[in-house]
Write a structure and sequence with these properties.
The protein has 212 residues and is of the alpha+beta class. It has helices at 2-17, 20-27, 49-53, 129-132, 134-141, and strands at residues 30-38, 41-48, 67-71, 74-82, 93-100, 111-114, 123-124, 127-128, 148-154, 163-175, 180-188, 199-211. 19% of the residues lie in helices and 42% in strands.
């Protein structure tokens, strides 16, 4: 405990003595968790130290970390994707995926099928199906669909609603003790959305977090 407190105090002291320019550079430091192409546009899944200590992206369903979350029998994945050069901090792509999590979840090498379920309201980034519990309730009332997940894309610039996606998600490798996994996903829209057709291929390294 004393050792941890000493490290924290040292870090706070270091930030205090740094110049404002050095502080700004530290806050811009990126941690990259994954990458994806959306219609051949290369994007990164990352967060900065500054975003981690601020509340800028308060609306993100799973926060700004690289966690994927199991809550009430459903696992949720979030991909917050942006241009690596940060040309415009307001231009981002948000993918939210949900699938049933049984006692054996996750299974390495298994392909988790993602389909379009019109019965589930995907919502928007301010009231997504993660917050509303729509998918939890759907699985509860329709257990025959538990082998299928759903996904939505919130695209710039409006982010009015999630565009339904279909495809698959797969765990490539992982450490169950540490809860860390490498995941790939391949998704597409049906072309009926206002933004047209989306084709998405990506991967990321995430940490499993169970919410009781």
């Amino acid at each position: 405990m004393k050792h941890s407190l000493s490290i924290l105090l040292l870090a706070m002291f270091s930030m205090t003595v740094l110049s404002s320019c050095e502080k700004r550079e530290i806050l811009k430091h990126k941690t990259v968790y994954g990458e994806a192409t959306i219609n051949n546009n290369c994007l990164l899944q990352y967060t900065t130290i500054g975003e981690g200590v601020s509340n800028k992206y308060w609306f993100l369903p799973l926060g700004v970390d690289n966690n994927f979350i199991v809550k009430e029998g459903v696992c949720y994945f979030q991909m917050f994707l942006r241009d690596c050069e940060e040309k415009d901090s307001e231009i981002f792509w948000l993918i939210l995926i949900g699938c049933h999590a049984d006692k054996d979840f996750p299974v390495i090498g298994k392909e988790y099928k993602i389909v379009v379920q019109d019965q589930v309201d995907l919502g928007n980034i301010y009231n997504s199906f993660y917050w509303s519990g729509e998918l939890r309730d759907f699985y509860s009332g329709n257990p025959e669909f538990k082998s299928y997940g759903i996904a939505g894309l919130s695209a710039p610039p409006s982010h009015d609603e999630f565009v339904p996606l279909e495809g698959s998600l797969q765990f490539l490798k992982g450490d169950s003790k540490a809860g860390e996994y490498s995941i790939s996903y391949n998704l597409k829209s049906d072309g009926n959305s206002a933004g047209g057709t989306y084709c998405i291929i990506g991967k990321f390294n995430g940490k499993l977090k169970v919410i009781k």
